[in-house]
Every structure is written in structure tokens, then in C-alpha cells.
Protein 1
Amino acid sequence: MIDWKNVLRIFGCGALSLLAALVLFLLVFVFSVQSVFLNPAHWETAVFEMDLYSGVKAVIVNQLDSMLPPGIGFADASFRTSFVNAVFEKHWFEAQVRNLLVSFFGFLNGQTSGLSLEVSLVEPKAKAEVFLNAYAAQEGLGSVFDASDFSEFPDSLNLLSAAPEAAAGFAQVKQFVSLIPVTLVVLTVVLLLILFGLMHLAGVPGVWVCAAVIALVSGIFFLGFSFLVQGLVQPLMLQSLIPPSQGWESISMDSSRLVEVFLNEWILLWRVAGVVLFLAGIGSLAVYWKKRSKMLAVTGSLKQPSVPAASDLSVGVD
């Protein structure tokens, strides 16, 4: 006769185990997005390690004629390079990057209500005046440039003014980011409730099987997701980047490399987690079989009929 109570218990344990694997997948997904993509210090390290400064300088060199006041010619490429190296120094670039990242992620994380992405031009304007006057003096032209020659240039550059539609997109991203802490708490509570239910249904030996199912299925999910991102999502994201216009090829290449670096790190995180969970699942199965074998051995010894010892037997004497 079929023990329907036991069948339902096994079915419930299997369903809860699969549900726990799904919740664990979502929990790691949300956490990985927060830790990899929403960490300003992480972005700062990546930008500096990839030396985007060189790409930015190359763009400025190529666009220099259209950026300076009329009458200042820079036909000589070596002179343009010297000018850019003197005016746009690396410490200035790094300071602007830090300010932009702090402002941007402060907005996304709800630390500031408004988004301000401004690059200070005060230092480059002052250095440009000094450099050009030094060059003019060297050529015997005297002091021909002063602050008024650069008065038409603002003291700061608002990056959002060039793409006002981006502000609306960032506001939508902020709404998504604001849900991450709540989502992590909810998923954690749900996962704990599922695990508590599994312990109640499966008991001590059976809970190891449930743990193995959760770990193995989660490991397969994680590994499959990493290959999906690498095979489909990563190429689509790289192709969706704006094609480089003339003079901006280096920045476009650096942006593609930066996106690729973060995606590769994300993929690596999923694969490491997948392998760890898969091995944990195998370990849980090993623990279960060990405990099951031990329980069967104890049960078998209890059910085995006892044989009286020879000394206990009474022998009759005629």
C-alpha cells in the first residue's frame, strides 16, 4: 500500500528545495549587481588601472582647434600634445573622476536628491594662460594671452547639458537601485523560511538531501547563467555601445574595455559561486549517505534476534 503521506512529504521537500534554489539565485544576482556595478571605489580602481586618462588626452588633442579661442592655431601635433600634457594634468583628471563617481553613485544610492555631473575647468584655464604666454615669450611675441582670452569658457562643464535625456534615465535607474536593500532583506527572509520548512518536513537525515538538491540546482543555475551572459549578453552590450565618431575612437575603445572588464568580473563571480555550490551539493549527498548507512546499521542491529549464549542454556541430566 502506498504511503501517501510520505509521498506528499517527499514532493513537498522537492518543491521547496527547487524554490530555495531559485530564491538563492535571485539573492546572489541582486547582491552581485550591488557589489560589482554599484560600488564607486570599484569603478575608480578600474578607470585608473585602464588608464582612461591617456584616451581623454588623445581626444582633447584631436579636438583642440575647435575648443580654443579663434586665432590660436595648433597645426603642429607635437605642440598640441605638449599643450594638453601641461594643461590637463593627471592629478586634475583623477580628481574630476573621483568627484563624478561620488556624485553619480551618491545620487543612485539615495545619498543626494539631485544629480550634478560637472567637471571643473578652473585649473586648466589658468594653466593654459601660463603655457601659452611662456610659448609666446619663447617665440619673442611677449605676453599675448590673458584671462580675458578664455573668458568665453565656463569655469565648469556640465556633462548632463550635452545629453539632457540621460538625467531621466538615471532617475529611473535610481528607483531600481533604491529597491535593492529591501529586495535583499525579503529574499533572505524567504530563504530562511523555506529552509526552516525543509528541516521540519525532511527531518535531520533528509535535510541533507534537500541541501544537496538546493546546492546542485543552484550550482547548475549559476554556471548556466555565467555562460549565458558570456555568450549572449556580453556581445549584445558591447555592440550596443555608441559607435566611435571621428577623434573619439580611443574613448570608445576604453569604454568597451571597461564594460568588458566588469562583465568578466561578474561572470567569474557566478562561476566561482556555481562551482562552490556544486561541490557543496556533492558533499551534502556524501553526508546524507553516511548518516543513512549509520542509521540503517543501528536499525538492523536492533531488529536482529538475540541468540542465547551457551552458558545460559540449561542442560537436563537424567
Protein 2
Amino acid sequence: MPPHIPGPPLPRTARQAPTPPLLIRLAAACLGAALLACPGPAPLHAQAPVLSWRFFHEQGADRFYRKDFEGALESFSRYIELAPGDAGGWHNRSLARGGLRDYRGVIEDTTRAIEIDPGHRAAWSDRGAARLETGDIDGAIADTTRAIEIDPDYHFAWNNRGVARFRKGDFQAAIADHARALEINPRDPRAWIYRGIARRTTGDFDGAIDDYSRALALNPRDVFALSDRGIARSAKGDLEGAIADYTRAIETDPKFAPAWNNRGLALRARGDVAAAIDDHARALELNPKLASAWNNRALARADTGDLEGALADAGRALELDPKYVNAWMSRGGARYARGELDAAIGDYSRALELTPDSANALNNRGLARADKGETDAAIGDFPRAADTDPRSAAAWSNRGLAHADRGDTDAAIADYTRALDIQASAWPLLARANALWRKGMREAAGADYRRVAEFAAAEPEPYIWVSMYFSRNEAAQRAAAAMLERAVKRGVRPDAWTVLLGWLGYRKAGQPRDAAAFLAHWSARLDRERWPAAIVRHLQGEITREALLAAATTAGRRTEARTLLGINQLYSGNLAAGLAELRWVRDAGRKSRWAHGLAVMEIERREGIAPGLAGIAPRLLAAITPYSF
């Protein structure tokens, strides 16, 4: 079946390694500057002992540095009672409120400080940071810009404006602001981290890694820098380096949930799904409200075939964050795998309400609509995905499959070609080869079938299908067995289609006992309720033909079921019954299904009407050498 795009990873975003609120990360340094600059309430010296205001000032600072923000708030409030006209006191209390994430309170206190002292650079900068946390990005940029105008060398303001510009999507301007902050104070690890985040977002992974490394040179125990550098390394493809960074962050602070969550993502990408699930579970023990960890565990559970667990985890992520697009995608993917097409379409549609330009959501909804038989609607989704992301090969390939189902072979071939122009891959090659074969263009089809073998290492399943088309049975057997063994090593539940392809290799080779033994060995590991396990159950005599077809609830599934029914009949000696099943597939089945191509080949082979097979097959078989798995 067409490859399904899961909900992502965008496997490795700021959501998966969140940085603390900006105000809190800068508060300690700002407070230090504020305390040094605070002259005390001189006009009140005659009314109260000097130690009264100084006591509350120093007590508040001590409590703040010990992260006793409630206590600091109380102390600075007492200070303000004694010195209501001191801008520094209002600013210091705003920092305590920032520690409590009371950003409205921060805005109130910094505004009062600015009213008293319009030249208070820290109050302008920190009010901007608080406005950013309340979603007022333009207000944040205006306030931090004012702080810079007051003091062009105030690096905190440059940092704060850089973060605001980042949130606004002006990444290059953000990078420039953080660079200016670093010119002023190259020993601020926060500035290196913030610029690293902006660089990573623009795809400059090397620059980001360098910035995180500079931050770590200043503070080797900064778990945020370690985790963020891991994200950049993972995005660059350096999974081992990413895992090393996440592990170091975990060793530095075993309670830092984002590092566990991100390491789980890297482990899953490396193929160690069981370990990934354990890491996500640990992240959730530390922070049950970390929505990304619920979503990431959902994806890993889906890999193992635990669709119930995947649905539960994705649902929990959505309870925590109803606007979490990736979680809607993940739940849609699990529902799609369970055959719940209407529910899957609903989830993808919800994702599109939140992000109308999501090529992945459009692609996946198109696939679900196509499976449901809503071909016209599917064809409408795929061009939108291609318009949103012109470099999305999947969008063009999937639209080609929809055109094939509608019988527009020329349009299908054009779409597959467009997909291959963007990115060479075995799946669109196989689809185009099948379309060319149906059109009678056997030489061109043979060339594409031969090219499929070039991708066998990375994409073995299309290679197995081609081997089946041309009865390279031993090659199919070996490739299927290798895929299944790898799945077991990864902790992933074996795929039923891979089991069926291996069975086909033995069945078509005239080895019925080996075919039965292969099926018996692997069927116990399958999710017996997930399609196409019903085909396996029929081949093992557990359910009748009628029960199998009743379980095949879509046109695509009926195409697949009747192809396997037909081949089983053919190789059991029931030629008429077998050909009847395969002719139904050829004439009424979904042409986008790989099984349709197999049915066509078997009919041509049996009916002796295969000039293409006679002319192409010998050269094709010579070219498709058995791949060593």
C-alpha cells in the first residue's frame, strides 16, 4: 500500500525540547544588575531606619536566588510599601512575579517602574519579555526596541528582542539580534543557545551545533544546551551524537524530562523502538503534562502494532493541548491503520483547521479518502499538498495513485514522473512501472522495474513485489525473512504484508509445506485484528472466503484479498477459480494497489497473452539479481 506519512515527527522541534520562559532565564542576571543600581529610598530616611528598606531589599534578593519566588514577592512588596517611588523596587518585584509565571503581574510592575523612570532599560526589556509570554509579540518587540534605544549596549534587550522576532517568524532578524548580544557579551550562554535555536530553525544545523557547543564551553552542565544540540545533531542525521548529548543531559539532571523525551525520538529513529517507549514513559513519569511525550510514545506504540495504546496516548496529548497538530496527525494515523477511515479523515481535517498548509495532513487525508473510495476528494487533497510543498514527492505520487484508480493512466504516469523528478524512490517507480505495463508500454515498464532493484537496501518491499511479479521467488523469500527479522530486533511487530509476501515466495515456488511453515512461524507475532491479518487467517483455515471478503471493508482491501485468494487457488491446482478471482481484480479492483499488478501478471502468465512477459521478463530477470539482505 502507499507509504503513510505519520504525525512527527517534525520528529525534533521546540515543542520537544522546550526552553523555559525567557523572563525566568534572564531574571537572575537582571536582578543582579537591578540590585547593584538600587540606591534605596532616600526621601524616607527620616521616617524609617535605613535598615528597614535595605533589609527587605536584601531579603528579597536572597529569597529570589534560592528560587523562593513567593518569599521574594513578599519581601519586595514590603520594600515597595516603604519606597513606592523607587523604580528599582517595582522592577525587582516584577522579577519575582516572573518566577511565578505571573506575566500580567510582571507587566503591571514594570509599567509602574517605567512611569517612575522612563529610562529604566531593564523594565522596558523585561516588560517586553512578559508581553511575549502573553502572546503580544508586537508589544514585546516595541518594548525591547525602546530598551535598546536607551542603552544600545544592553545585551539582555537584544536577546529578548531576538526571541520575540523568532516567535514572529523573522528568523534572520532574530539571528542578527542574538549576534549583537554576543558581540556585547560573548560569555552569556543564553545568547548562544537562542541563536542556536534560530539557526537550527533555518536549517543551519552546523551553525546551531557550533552555538550550542559555545554555550556548553561556558557551562558544561547546561541541560538545555545539551538537549538542543542533540536536536540539531538528530536533524542533521547524527543519531549517535544526538543520543550522546541527550544521555549527557540525563546524567547531569536525571529529572530533566525533555532529554528523556528527545532521546526516545532518536532511539526510535535508530530503530530501537522498545527503548524509545521506555524513555518516553520516563519523561511522562517526570512530567505527565508533557504533551509531546504522549504523542511521541503514541508513534512508537504504533510502530509495535499497539494501536490501542497509540490511540490512548495521542488522545491524552490532545487533552493537554487541543491545538497540538502532530497529535491529531498521530491519532489519525492510528485510526487509519485500524481501518477507521471516517475517524481518520476527521482527525486530519482537524489538523488542517489548525494548519491549513500542512502537506502531511493533506496527503494523509487524501490517502484515507482514496481508501474510502472518495477518489475525487482525494485528488483534490493531493494537489493542495503539492501546492503547499512543491517539493513533496509523496503528494505527486499519491495523486498518481488516485488518478490510476479513476482510470486516468496518462495523468497517473505524469504525476509519478513529477514525484520522481523531485526525489527518486522505489514506490513511485513501481507505481509508474505498473501504469506503463497496463498501457502496453512494456519496454519502459521494464526499465522502471529494473530500477526498483537499485533501492532494495533502503526500500526492500517494492523490490519484493517486483520479485513476485516476475516469479523471483527465492529472492522474495530471503528479502521478506530479512525484513521480518529486522522488525523483531527493533522491537516492532512484524508487518502482515511482509509475512504474506514471504508466503507468496514459497507458494509460487511450488513449496506449499514451506509456505505453511513460514506462515505459522510468523502469524503468531501479528496483530490478528489488523488488516491484512484476515488474509493470513483465511490461508490458515481459520475463516472462510466469505468471512474474509466481509472483513475486506474497502475496495482496496477487496483487491488485495481476491488477489491472494486467486493465487492460492492457482497454486492449489484450481485454475478456473483462481483466474476468476484475478480477473475480478483486473477489471474491478483498485489499480493503485500493488496486488493489482500481481494479479495482472498472473493472468497474463496463465492465459499466455503476455508478449510483454515473453519479451521483457528474460532481460528483466537478468537485471534483477537477488539482493543480499
Protein 3
Amino acid sequence: MVAKHSGYAQFASLPVLTSDTDYSGVVARLEHILNSASVAQLQDGATWYTTAHSLLATAAHKANLPIELVAYAASALSAQTGWQRNVLALAAHIVAYCNGDTDAPHTQGYGTVFHSNDKKAWAILHAASVEAGYALLGQGEKTLAFGPNLLELDCLPNGKPAVTIDSIMYQAAYGRVAAKINKGAYDTVRRACLFLAKKYGYTWYQIQAIVWVVWRGTAN
């Protein structure tokens, strides 16, 4: 079951959007949320990926790995997992890698939902190249975007805009829960983030992070 967050109560007056391709409606909702952010929330959101990038740089240095592979492993572990638990799971992988373990650690105790995510992250850390590691992420748009965003990159390797859109961003954009985000919704929210980034002078991953912080009520 997808959890609801504090934004439902705070923004209860905003219309619930029934169409996943309601671009103007999504822009209006996200802009209202963005303009409702406190100074602290703006700061937390605007620097969220910088903080994450620094953490990954430390992990990459410890394991003597390219930071890209560490970011992609973190993204692989992120499915249905909060960031704090994501970091704990990644740390377990880095420790196992440095210890020379042969098998992926089991991180369900940290909140990772599927052991398949552990196996994918483990394979990424052992990839022969950064490109090979990215390819192992598969086809999920959220994880494909989250890896580059963790590196403070605003585009995928193919040049397409990278915007991390998870269940929290979907709830903020539409005012309702979806068990799965379809392509129409992903494209609509991504376009809205690009528009608002240009309008307000942020990167699009900063727009996403600010909205995420405000809707969830915390930066973690």
C-alpha cells in the first residue's frame, strides 16, 4: 500500500486531478506547493541532492569505486524505500564490497523491499564500466533518473531530462495515490518540473526535491 503524507492535509483545498495528462492542473498544483515552502524547506530542497552527492562521494572514496556506480547502486536500492533506509542499505553494500564478500547483502532489515534490488545494486558495484552499471538499472524511469540526479546531473546519459518522480511526487502533482506511475503521468510531471525550473531559476531536480520536502514534511 502506498503511504499518504502530510501534504494531503496541508493542501486539501487544491483540486484532485483525475487525468494523468492534465498538464496545466499539475503545473498549478506544483506551483502552489512550491510557493508554500518555508525558507527552511526551500533550502533543504534546493540542497538535497548536493548533500546526497557528498555522501556518495565519501562512499565511493571508501570503496575506491567510481562515484557513478555508487549513485546507480543507491538508485537501484531506492525502490519503495525511504532515503534514510536507502543510505543504510547502501552502506551495507559498501562494507560488503570492501570486505571482498562474494554475495549481495540482504538489506530488507533496512527497509529495502525486494532482495532483487540488493542483487541489482551488487551487480552495479561490480560492473566493468560506468556505462555497464547504468544499463543494469533496467527500464524504470524513476531509478534511471534518480542515479544521475544523485550526481547533480539534470539529464540522462541519452540527453533526456532526468526528473525523479516517485509516489510522493505523484501525490503532490495529482492529490491522489497511485500504486504505479504510468508513462503519461511521468511525462506530464516531468514537463511541469521543467517549466517551473525555468520560471523560478532552479534546476528541475531542485524543483522536484523542494516539492518532495514540502509534501512529505521532512527532508529525510
Protein 4
Amino acid sequence: MTDLLTAVSIIFIVAGPFLLVANRLKLPTVPLLILAGIVAGLFIEEGATLELAQYGIALLVFSFGVSIQFSAVRTVLADSEITALGQILVVGSLGVASGVALGVPIEEAIYFGMAAALSSTIVGTALVQTEIRRNLVRGRLAQSIHFIQDLIALVFLLVLGAGTVAADPIATQLGYGLTLLAVAVLVNRYLFDIIGQFAGDSDELLIVSTVSLLVVFVGTAASVGVSIVVGAFAAGLAVRHEPAEYLGLFNGLSSIRDFFVAIFFVTIGALVAFPTIDKLLLVAVLVFLTAIVKPAVTAAILLYKGYDSRSATLTSLSTDQVSEFALIIAIEALLLGLLTQLVFDAIIFAAALTMITSSISQRYEEQIYRTLAVRGVFPSGHKKVDEWSDVPEGIDDHVVIVGYGRQGRRLVEACEDLGQPYVVIENDPSVRDALVSECSAYVFNDAMEPYTWEKARAEAAAVIVSAVDSEPVSRQLLSFEFDADVILRTSDTTTALELLDEGALYVSVPDVLAGERLVQHIQKLLDGNRTPAELRQERLAELETRVDVGHQ
């Protein structure tokens, strides 16, 4: 324990100046935290670093289990399953084959392939957190793909924990793991709300109770010989709820998560060993498979499933790094003597490199997509868009609605009530059936693509309304310089002012509108124009509609 406390102290002493530089110069924090780890590694023994990495990864996996929202990802879960499985099969096989070709024994090449195939939930979902929060297609896809990959990694961890290829020990490990997950589901469904009721308004008591649950699950996993990461993931699922239900708890856990994210990246840097020529070759191949081949395979599968080229590309860029699960698997394999130091160091070095490059690729994702599109990487022509769209010939003086979520549906209803012609633009395959059955005119393609607007006859439209909270889409609409008035949506007032200055007629800010509507409700109550029961029933109906729609 003393060694761990010393290691943590060194980590924060060294990381502090690097974080100050990142904040001052507005640089990505991941590369600087890894560089801080390389410096800290000079003063920390590898054994303490490995142990700290195990606990750090376990707590981060717990935080991901807590944050997964099935209501958001269920619409893309089937596609995500196919994408995750296809990606692991193709990239993992290439990784194993490459390892063997480079002289790595087949037993170790499996770990090499696993490192290439699995993507980091910590990095991947953190980089698209805005898209997840705004419920955009790519955010839901990225989150659900990582979730499926994590489940597969948990199975591999359980098999590894058996320490043998014999059927009985493996079955025992899998049985323990499934039992922990089953108990987690029961706790989530029947016990956690009771704990919340006992905690009352005390967020601190609820956080302490949650940490206690985490300790119970991790301790149980350790006592039966299962990886503590499996126990931590099960604990996360046990606690998982909609954030609005326990806002104080989730805010507190978010702070804890940020603390361990910093430790995680520093420990990755601390484990980096400067490579030999043999190691560099392994690292180069692993980085190529992870940062180039894996996103390409992911994008190809998503394109095949009907997603537009932009959503497929931007989603695939959230997978271009080595997973923390691959690291914990490599650590446990090293400690069990199943992995040599050479292959372990190559995996660690590649993980550090790809986590740095991933933060950079995410920053320039739009430029990367545009470059690929200009170079003709994606299928040319508009045959698929034409087949999947339905726009009356010669339609004019119409409303173009971007997005067919909750607000988009209301806009469509309003247009139909007024007899106003409209065209809906949407690119989410999960709502395509609803689009076809409920809308008289629609274009199924990405709003960032010029042909989408040509197909929607935007040049003849009376007004264009974006119901999507996406700054790139908003700025793209303004760049087209349509004659029609443009109404946009954003989540913050600063961006709203900028969009108004750039030519938008009106910018909707949901928080501001919600505040104004709340004042109107209170005035109606005070004036006697509405009873409390009527207000409650109206709000319940609105919320139930929102749940049924499932997205914005």
C-alpha cells in the first residue's frame, strides 16, 4: 500500500506542471499526461505501476458501466453488434497473422491481435462526449460499439483468469462472471432505488453507498479468482440509472472518473519502455492495424449497413486506439507468465502512441473526412440517396426540416396541420422506417453533403429549420447562403450569438426556451388558467412522448 501511495504522489507531482501547460496553451491533455507518465516512470517501480494500472482501469470500467444509457443506444444496438464483431474478427485475425509473421509465438500473437482489435472506451467515448450528450447518430454508434467490445473483452478476461485451456476451469470462470452480472442487474432493478430512498436528499450518503457497492462487487470478484475489472464493470451496471434521477450522484462520480482518467494516462506513459529495433517493428504494425485498418474496417461495415459516409467515418475515428481492456489483459497475461516482456512493451508503446494520435485525429475529424471524400475514397454518385428519398418534383415555398427526432416530429405535425409543404432531412437508419411511413417528403442523407440540399430543393424553400444541436451542421447551412431564412439550434448562448452574427434568422437555445416556458406555466397557475393536475398531466404526456421517440 505504501508503494502505491508513493506512486500516486509522484504521478501528481509530475503531472501537475504538464496539465498547467496544456491548460495554458489549450493543448490536448492526453499527450501531455502520457509524457508526464514517461517522466514519472523514471521514479516508480514497474510492479507498483502495474498494480496501480489495474486498479485505475477497474475504476474507469466501473464509470463506463455507470454511464451507459441503453435508452440512447438501443436504436443502433443491432448495427453496433455487427460492426463490433466484424471489426474484432477482421482486425483481430490480421493482428494474429501479423504477429506470427513477425516471429511472435501463436499464443502471444493472440494478445497482439486482441490489442489491435479492441478500442478504448475511455478515449473513444470521451472524444465524442458532446455527440453522445446531444444524442447524435455517431455518438450513439460509438458508445454502443465500445459497449459490445467491452463485453467481448470481459469474456476473454474470464477465460484468461482460468489459467488453462481446460473446459472445467473456463466454465467456472464464466459462471462466476455471469453470476456477477446477473446480480448486478437484480441490484439495479430492485435494490438501488431503495438505497436512493434511504439516502434521501443526501448526495454524499448515496455516493458512499455506491462506493460500498463497488467494493462489494470487486471484493467478491477477487475472492472467487475473477479479475477485479469484471467486478467493477458489474458494479457499474448495478448503479446504472438515467442521470436525471440521481444528478448529485452522477456529478460526484464524474469527478472521481476524471481523477482516475488522469492516473490511467500517466500510468500508461510510466509503463512505456524505449523500444529496440525488434520492438519498433511490432509497434509499427500494431499502430498501423489500430489507427488505419481498424477505422477503415469499421467505416466499411457501417457503410454496408446503410449509414452515410460522414457518420461512418467520424464514428470509425472513435475506434483508432488500443483499448484499456487490451492493456489489462496484457498485464494479467504478463503476470501469469503467458506474455513476454517484448510483446508486452510493444502493446504498451502502441497504446500510448494511438491514444495520442486518436486525440489529434478527433480534433481534425472533419478535415480528415473531407480529404477522403475529395480523393474519391467513398462510393461516388447519388443512386442510393435517390432510392431512399422521396421529394415531390417541383416542390417550392416549402419548409426544410433537419432531423426527425422529437422536435423534428413536432415541426412536421405543425406543417401538416397548416397544410404547409415540407421536406425532412435525416441520416439515422434507425428512424428510416418511421420517416417513410410518417412523412410525405424526405431526403435520407447527411445534412453536411451539398447533394442533400440539392435533392431537398433548398434553393426554392421558404425556410430551413435545423432541429439538430450540431455546430458543424449549423455552420454548413450558413455557408450555403440559401435565399431561405435559416433557423438553427444550439445548446449555449455564445454559439447562438455567433450564428446570429453569421446570418441565422433565429437560434433556438433549449435551456433558455425551457426557462421561459416554466415562467409561463407558473403564471398560468397563479392566474388560475390551469390547475396543478392539468399541468402535471400535460407534462407527463410530453415526457412519455419523448421516451417513446427515444432521441432528440
